[in-house]
Write a structure and sequence with these properties.
This protein is of the alpha/beta class. It has a single domain, classed as Double Stranded RNA Binding Domain (2-Layer Sandwich), CATH 3.30.160. The protein is about 30% helix and about 30% strand. It contains four helices and five strands. Strands 2-1-3-4-5 form a five-stranded mixed sheet. Helix 2 links the parallel strand 1 and strand 2. The longest helix has 23 residues. It starts with a helix and ends in a 6-residue tail after the last helix. The N terminus is likely disordered.
Length: about 170
């Protein structure tokens, strides 16, 4: 029992708060982007019990991007476009504890920007991750939704900082 609690405490202690673009030269891939499509994946069905849904996270992320002046492409735009639009993917993994830790969730968060790039080797267009940030942590079930939403906001803000550094707003 003691080792399990220590293990969870260690995971929480090593929460990786997002730093600016963790991939080498990630900001170099951002200039000239006209916007992004937002995709949220990997929400476990049990998370909805605590008020955490894909729609809520998508709305939160899109709102932060729009507030920063970053265009958010709609699903309809992405579907109708002949071009592969850049996609801001957010993956949220929640794993419930068991036994006396049933109200504790281990979290895994990852935010990525996917773009189509020309491979210098094959000369073919490929989907590539050009910006990424990830972290792990834990939250009690009573605060799962707000803790995940707050963490996703921090990851989104890290992307916004890098995006705006590469694409400064034009003076009006």
């Amino acid at each position: 029992m003691r080792s399990r609690i220590v293990g969870v405490a260690v995971i929480g202690a090593f929460w990786n708060g997002p730093a600016a673009a963790q991939l080498p030269d990630a900001r170099e891939s951002l200039p000239g982007l006209g916007g992004v499509q937002v995709v949220v994946e990997n929400l476990q069905p049990g998370a909805e019990h605590f008020g955490l849904t894909k729609d809520i996270l998508t709305t939160d992320i899109e709102g932060r991007l729009r507030q920063a002046g970053i265009r958010v492409f709609s699903d309809a735009e992405a579907t109708s476009s002949v071009m592969f639009l850049p996609r801001f993917y957010v993956f949220v993994g929640t794993v419930p504890g068991n036994g006396p830790l049933t109200n504790l969730y281990i979290l895994g968060l990852r935010a990525e920007l996917h773009q189509r790039l020309l491979s210098p080797i094959t000369k073919q267009m490929v989907s590539s991750i050009t910006w990424q940030n990830e972290g792990t942590g834990y939250a009690g079930g009573d605060h799962l939704s707000e803790d995940v939403r707050r963490s996703v906001a921090v990851f989104t803000d890290a992307f916004v900082i890098d995006f705006l550094a590469a694409n400064p707003p034009k003076p009006r």
